[in-house]
Amino acid sequence: MKTLAIKAVSVVFIIVMIMIFSGCQVNPVTGRDQLVLISETKEIALGNQYAPEFEKDFGAKVDNPRLQSYVSEIGGQIAAVSDRPMPYEFALLASEVPNAFALPGGRIYVTAGLMKLMDNERQLAAVLSHEVVHVAAKHSVDSIQRQMGAEVVLEIAGYAYEGKYASQILAVSEVAAQLGQLRYSRDDEYEADSYGIKYMIKAGYNPWGMVELQQKLLEAQTSDPGSLEELFSSHPLSKKRIKNAREIISSNYSEYTAPAPPDPGATRFLSMKKLLK
Which uninterrupted H or E stretch holds 197? Predict the structure, then answer.
């Protein structure tokens, strides 16, 4: 029995070493080396598999084709300039809790609660560009590798040994819940802001929408502590992040001056926002 246990541990060690040496890739957004244990094919399959349960956990998609088409249109403009081509999909969820999510593989969501806090289209573009970067820079994959446990990652990555990890796989509902609770590091958030600003500009949006959105969220949290606890637990926000976003725009995109002019997409955004019940 002890010999079998040692053998199993040895096999796992060998598998992990193979994964590490074969999993070093160049990040398509930052250009830095990154350890990726989950293939792109499996990443996409993972998002597709758990999306239905995930959507159900957050009130399902808002039952309004015009709203869904609008969010998909804005998201599609951002996805078109992403550094990593993926089968991006965008949807508005009915949850009144302000939040936004990026599932592995390119499924991106914003909640009705978060949309209601916004004033214009460039703020919506800011949210979606931020989430697109999480997918493009493989932040979602990295979070899974750090947070969901070795057994689950091994199974997702396709390195199961004679079915020995099959019993470790969580129920669909449990994995979907974990995907909704993936936490990004502060470095991930800074990257998502920085490259999100770049994507906004390439898609034709004024990047000050990113700063407007962050200020609005911080003010909402200050006036109603706890109202954005769920959002901030996965997307840490601070005055430093806002300051950093300001500096990125001022230093790298000085043609966009502050205060920003009115958003030309605000009227359309507000008409769509009224469709939310």
Answer: helix 186-202
Cα(236)–Cα(130) distance, integer angstroms:
13
Q: Are 93 and 58 in contact (CB under 8 A)?
A: yes
**Chain centre to alpha carbon of residue 31:** 19
Q: Which pLDDT band holds residue 10 (cuts at 50, 70, 90)?
A: very low
Residue 267 predicted with pLDDT over 90: yes
Q: Provide Rg for the chain, Cα atoms.
A: 20
**What backbone torsions phi and psi does residue 271 show, to the nearest 5 degrees?**
-70, -35
The closest alpha carbon to 10, from 166, 161, 146, 168, belongs to 161
pLDDT tens across 112-134, in order? 999 999 999 999 999 999 999 99
Over 116-137, what HEC string results? CCCCCHHHHHHHHHHHHHHHHC
Residue 229, classed as helix, strand or coil, is: helix
Are residues 111 and 97 in contact, defined by beta-carbon separation less than 8 angstroms?
Answer: yes
Supply 45's token pair: 């399959």
Angle at 112 between CA 174 and CA 264, to 5 degrees: 135
Q: Which helix (H) or strand (E) holds 70?
A: helix 65-79
Tokens of 272: 């769509």
- Distances in Å between the Cα of 255 and the Cα atoms of 52, 192, 197, 251, 252 are 42, 21, 13, 10, 9
Residue that wins the pLDDT comparison between 234 and 75: 75
